[in-house]
Amino acid sequence: MGSAIADVAARAGVSKATASRALSGKGYVAESTRQRVVLAAKEIGFVASPNAASLVTGQTKNIGVVIPFINRWFFGEILEGIEQALLNRGYDMTLYNIYPGSADRDRVFDFFLARKRFDGVIAIGVDSTPEETERLLRLGIPLLSVGAPVAGVRSLTIDDAAAGRLATEHLLGLGHRRILHIGGPVTGDDDASVQGRRLRGYVGAMTQAGLESELSFAQTAMSVPGGYEAGAHSLSDPSSRPTAVFAACDEIAIGVMIAARRLGVRVPADLSLVGIDGHEYAEMFSLTTIEQKPRAQGQAAVADLLAAVSGEAMAADVVDMPARLVVRASTAYARANADAV
Prior knowledge:
The protein is an alpha/beta fold. The chain has helices spanning 5-12, 16-24, 31-44, 50-57, 73-88, 105-115, 130-137, 160-173, 194-208, 224-234, 250-262, 294-309, and strands at 62-67, 92-97, 120-124, 143-146, 154-157, 179-183, 217-219, 244-247, 272-277, 288-292, 318-320, 323-326.
């Protein structure tokens, strides 16, 4: 049976205002007092009403999260980091899946986000159009992007162009010249998407090495099946086969590796492979990768967003998150006669 906040206050020996602050987490309360109030609430079975608390604080204790994919490792890792960080701080999360090209995408931006009250919104890896970004900004609440930069919005992400360049330079340093880049679909401005920026890094490294004539790019889905399909097609002809592949994500790289094995192409003796992400299976497949920490990115996003919810200023800048090259057994020096194959 629930009890009023007055009963909690009386049992803890504090005022109703102090009890409310202790249970809502808003406003200063000494830690010893907070613990006394929490214990009193537990003893009498009091559960604070989020709706009632929002009337007092003006906050809903709910964060909206928009995500393009929920079944891919990178996005799932960020989402888990966000969810755990919000739970630790007593916040709820409402999730919207805005798959690119889906009929419901416009409805989420135009209706659902505007209708439901949130204290803030986090966009996970959303390559939003300027119009979609404007709709989010019109909500008038703290907004943060993680996993992909969004113009005019604080964004936590790795430098994708630098990651693409680093992956390609690693292969160039091993003596490879016929380097194929396999990435996601790129349309229009190459800076408008994660895939486009990673492609730009590849092109920049190859161009600087004087290998414009060797530029080769295959588009596929950013997934293991996508990598398998692109790998099966690109590796099937020995006369045009690349000696190395830079994959835009580890899932593509793993798919290419599976295709190579089925075609009898040895990794790394015949083909070197490098990806991006630091997938949980990368070590199992001995995959060289540009490792990032998506779960930590999600946790950092929550910390920054909730600071803004509490009134701290939040700059609309891009914060480069850590990424490093992890070399494993999927890359090796090019064979001396590789170009003669």
